[in-house]
Every structure is written in C-alpha cells, then in structure tokens.
Design a protein that fits this description.
Layout (H helix, E strand, L loop, with lengths): L2 H10 L3 H10 L18 H10 L5 H8 L4 H17 L2 H13 L7 H16 L5 H7 L4 H10 L1 H5 L4 H9 L6 H17 L1 H11 L5 H7 L5 H10 L11
Helix pairs in contact: 3-5, 4-5, 5-6, 5-7, 7-9, 8-9, 9-12, 12-13, 12-14
C-alpha cells in the first residue's frame, strides 16, 4: 500500500464548499479550539471506505499521515490505526497503543478523539493498569483530557463504570464545554446500563456540575426528573432532593 497514492485518492474527494462549512463547524477561527486546522471537505463515510481499502498501509506511513496538517488525513490515519489494532496480536496492539499516545498531539479535535480513543486506548487498558488515563485526565491539554474520559466508553460497554465515574469527578470543574459534553455523554452511557450508578453520582455532584454536563447526563431521564435537575441543579445550585 502506497501513502502517496492514498493521498492522491483523498484529494480526489475534496469539496471546497463543504470545507468552508467544516471549518466553521470545527471552530478553526482565530482564538478558537481548532485554530488554523485545514479541511478538504470530505465526508466521513468516504474516509471510512478509504481506511478499509488501505488498512494494510505500513504503520510508519499511517503515522506519517497522522502528522498531516489536513484534518481529514489525520482522521483517516486514525481509522486505519483502528483496523490495524483490531487485526493485531498482543504485541502489535501494544505497539499501536504506544504510538497513539506518542502521537497524541496530532489527535487534536473532538471527532478525532471520539472516533478512536475507546477502540485503541480504552481497549488496550481494559484489563491493564489505568494510570495512563488518570495522567491524561490531569493534563493541561483539552484533547488529552477528552481522550481520558472517552477511552472509558470501552469499559462502560463492558459494564465497568468505576474509572468513568472517577475520571468524571476529576473533570467536574473543568473549564471547557467540550469536556462538559464528553463527561455528560459518558455519564449518560453509564445510565443506559445502570441508572442507579449514574444517579448516585448525580446525587453527590449535580450541584456543582456545569449545566451542559448535566444536560447531557440526564438526556434520557423522564421529563419530570429531568426538569427537576435542570431547575435546581448545575453550576453550584444546592438544596434539591431529586427523589
């Protein structure tokens, strides 16, 4: 598999008008979280198809693609890494996991994190020491903190919630809405599988949770209970008995 040929294929699917929309959607303007990111305007299903076709691209070529200044090439590299990870033996999985963390500065937007973290970091750490996730959760990097919480989606799907809830607690006072959304999402996923576990967490923390985090977390609650949380909970409100 040839990296040059793959890049030629990518550019054949470029769409200038779509790229303009994506640049606005992913906040690439001055001072925004993805300032300066470059988009070609390629739809995700196209990139998924290319990842399947080029899943045997050498790891070195895949990591070169991951360093690209072009957003879609980085996303494509991560999709290829997932294919490689799933096909690998234990030693190969370890190599890909370590490469993912070594190159994590290029995994620098929410879609890049969300498409890959649970499949590589989460899967690799499921039966291993979780300390790397806690280090990421304490990082100054927005994207590393998001990797930490989203990686635990893998554990949630296996009905192991402890690390999700611990990392969620670490991130309760985070100042970025992309972390608020990610934590709320993961809490909601816990609740889909164990509502009592989610509600215990909320009872202890809803008064200090950012409102966006709370909204995401309770999205699947019945209307009355959801309104009760929203009326009195979030951002330091106190004194509500939800039950």
């Amino acid at each position: 598999m040839d990296l040059k040929k793959l890049r030629e294929m990518v550019r054949k699917h470029a769409n200038t008008e779509k790229a303009k929309v994506l640049k606005r959607f992913f906040k690439t303007g001055p001072g925004e979280y993805a300032e300066g990111d470059i988009f070609l305007g390629i739809k995700v299903p196209v990139l998924r198809d290319l990842a399947k076709q080029y899943k045997d691209l050498k790891l070195t070529g895949t990591l070169t693609l991951l360093k690209s200044p072009i957003h879609e090439e980085r996303l494509l590299a991560l999709l290829i890494l997932i294919h490689k990870y799933r096909a690998a033996e234990v030693s190969g999985k370890e190599r890909i996991y370590k490469a993912y963390l070594r190159y994590r500065r290029f995994i620098n937007n929410w879609d890049l994190v969300d498409v890959s973290a649970k499949h590589i970091v989460g899967d690799y750490l499921y039966n291993r020491n979780k300390k790397p996730l806690y280090r990421l959760a304490r990082s100054r990097s927005l994207w590393e903190r998001r990797i930490a919480i989203i990686s635990t989606f893998n554990f949630i799907e296996k009905r192991q919630f402890d690390d999700t809830l611990k990392i969620a607690e670490m991130l309760l006072l985070d100042d970025h809405d992309l972390i608020h959304k990610a934590v709320g999402w993961m809490l909601r996923e816990v609740g889909k599988r164990d509502r009592a576990a989610e509600e215990r967490f909320l009872e202890e923390n809803y008064t200090i949770m950012p409102r966006t985090m709370l909204r995401y977390a309770i999205e699947k609650f019945q209307t009355v209970k959801r309104r009760a949380y929203l009326n009195k909970g979030g951002e330091g409100c106190k004194g509500l008995s939800i039950r």
